[in-house]
Specification:
Elements: H1 2-30, H2 34-37, H3 45-125
Length: about 130
Amino acid sequence: MMSAERAENLAEATQVAAEFEGEIRDIIRSRDVTFLRTPAAKPGGDANNLNSLIQRVAGSSTVEIDNLIDQLQDMREFLQIEGERISREIAGYAQASQNARSQMEMIAEQIVQLRSGLQSVRAGSN
């Protein structure tokens, strides 16, 4: 669900960037672009138009980056919580395994003692 939203956001950002590049190419092809090379350029509509395009694309990119940062932080928190949960479960399984092993060793010792006792009884009755 989130990956579809990310894909949509990425597609939208890519489309905006492509439109921006196209508009810059159009401006460069159709007008005098010396205002881009010299700091003392005449204030005009072309510079304002270019600035608004840059701000629009930068704004979209900034929003997209902020969204990605939020999603990455959420994922990091989720992974930390899951890592802690898995560690607790592994510790629980290790403890259960140790308890089972101890019980099996006690049962094995009791069986050995029982067999020794039975053999002693049989040897005594012969």
